[in-house]
Amino acid sequence: MPFLNKLQRWAAERPHDTAVVIAGRRLDWAQFRDEAASLVAETKSVAALCEPNSIGFAVKFAAAVAGGRQCAVLDPAWPVLLQEEIVHRVHAAAQAVAVATDDALEDGPGDSPFLIGLTSGTTAVPKAFTRSRRSWKESFEASIEFFGLRQDDVTLAPGPLAASLNLYALAECLYAGSEFQTLETFDVGNVHSAITHDRVTRLVLVPTMLRMLSERGLTGCVDASGVRTIICAGSKLDARTLEAARRWAPNATIYEYYGASELSFVSGAGLPAGAAPALGGTGIGRPFPGVAVQIMDDGGSPLPDGQPGNICVRSAMVSNGYLWGDDGEALRSFDGWFTVGDQGYLDAGELHILGRRSDMILTSGKNVYPHEVELALGAVPGVAAAVAAGMPDDLRGQRVVAGVVPSHGGVTATQLRAGLADILARDKRPLQFYALAELPVTDRGKVSRSLLLDWIDARDARVRSLGT
Length: 468
Known about the structure:
Blueprint: H1 4-13, E1 18-22, E2 25-28, H2 29-40, E3 46-49, H3 55-64, E4 70-73, H4 80-96, E5 113-119, E6 127-132, H5 133-147, E7 154-156, H6 164-176, E8 179-182, H7 188-197, E9 202-205, H8 207-219, E10 229-232, H9 239-248, E11 253-260, E12 264-271, E13 286-287, E14 292-296, E15 309-314, E16 321-324, E17 332-334, E18 337-339, E19 342-347, E20 350-356, E21 361-363, E22 366-368, H10 370-378, E23 383-393, E24 397-406, H11 413-420, E25 432-436, H12 449-458, E26 463-467
Parallel strand pairs: 1-8, 3-4, 4-5, 7-8, 7-9, 9-10, 10-11, 24-25
Antiparallel strand pairs: 1-2, 5-6, 6-16, 11-12, 12-13, 14-15, 15-19, 17-18, 19-20, 21-22, 23-24, 25-26
Helix pairs in contact: 1-2, 2-3, 8-9
C-alpha cells in the first residue's frame, strides 16, 4: 500500500461519488482511477513532480506511486536551479536502485519505498528521506482513528500539495474514500466560498491560514457552523487564533498535533466545541495510536517525568532514513527510538514541546526555550503575536528579550509582566520587551529570532522599546 488498492475499491463501489475537487475541477472515483491508470505505463520508475495544485498533479502523483515506483514532490516556488539540482539527485538515486514496476494501478510491496520526501535543512539543498508504503498505511490508520475522518466528510486543505501536510491529506482521503478539495492557490475568499457552498466539514491547514480565515470570516459573516473538524499543524495555536477559530467555527473540534516529516505523527490533542482551552501551555497531547514516546538524554538513557530532553519515538510510521543530507544529527536512533532533536518533557503521559536545542537560551545557568516564552506571551491580552530570543549579557551570559505585535489598543511592559505572572516561571520571563510593527520573518515566511536581535541592535524603525 499506501492508497491505490483502496482507490480501486471506491471506484468499483461508488464510481460516481466525488473523489477530488481541485481549482474547481471535479473527478469522481471512476474518473480518477481511469485517468491515473492511463498514465502508469508512461511513468518512470522514479519520478519528480514539480507542479502547482491541479487535478493533473493529483492524478500524476497516483500514477507515480503505482507498483514499485517512487516519487519526489518538489515545490514549484523553489528557484529553478534548486529544482534542477534536486531532480538530478533524484535521477542519480534512481540509477543506484533497481525498481521493479508493472503497468497496473495498484500498490507495491509494503516494505518498498514510494515517497522521496524533502525537508529544509541548514544547507541550500533540502535533505531527502524515503517513506515505505507500509509506513503511510500505518499513518493513515492512526490519523483516521485519531481525527475521526469519515467517508461523508469533505476535507479542504487550501495549501500547496507540494507541502507534506496537504499531500498527506490528499492521500489520506483517497485511502479513506472521503472527498478531498483544494484550491489552485490559497485565497481567503475562495476558501470561504468553498466552505459555504461545497459542504466542507473538515479543514487541514497551518495556524496563519486559520487566523486569516477566522478573523475575516467573522468580519464578513461567513457561516462555518458546518465545519466539524479543524486540523492545525506547524506550531501550537496562539490564544488569538484559537479564540477567533472557536467563534467562527463553533461546532468544530480543533486538533493540534506534533510530528515531523521523518517521524510522522507523534502526539496530539483535540479541543471539542464548547471546551475551555488551556492557554499559554506547552502541552501537545498524548501519543497517537501505535506510537510510544520517551524522553532521553544525549546518550540514549530515559529521563523521568518533568525532565526535558530529546523527544524520542518508536512507531511503525517512522521513515527509512535519508537519501542525502544526513549529518548524523537530523535523525538519530537510540536502539530503535528515533529523534529529530526536538526537546520536550512528559507530564502524566502528556507531551510538552519546548523546541529545538539550537534555539535554547542559557541565562544565569538556566535553560529557557523561546517557544515556551512565546506561547505564554500569546495568552496575554493585548498580544497578537510574539517572538522571544536570547541577547548577549555580560552578567547572565544571555538575557531573555521579547518582541510583541500588539493587538488593537496596544500593550505595555507592565501589562505583559502581569500577564506572565501566573503562566511562566520567573526565571523564564523576558527582562526587556519591544513592540513590533510586524513579526521578523525570513524570505520563506518563518519567524526569525536572530532577525529580531538584528532589528534591536540596529534600532530598526519596526522595533520600539517598551522598557523592562
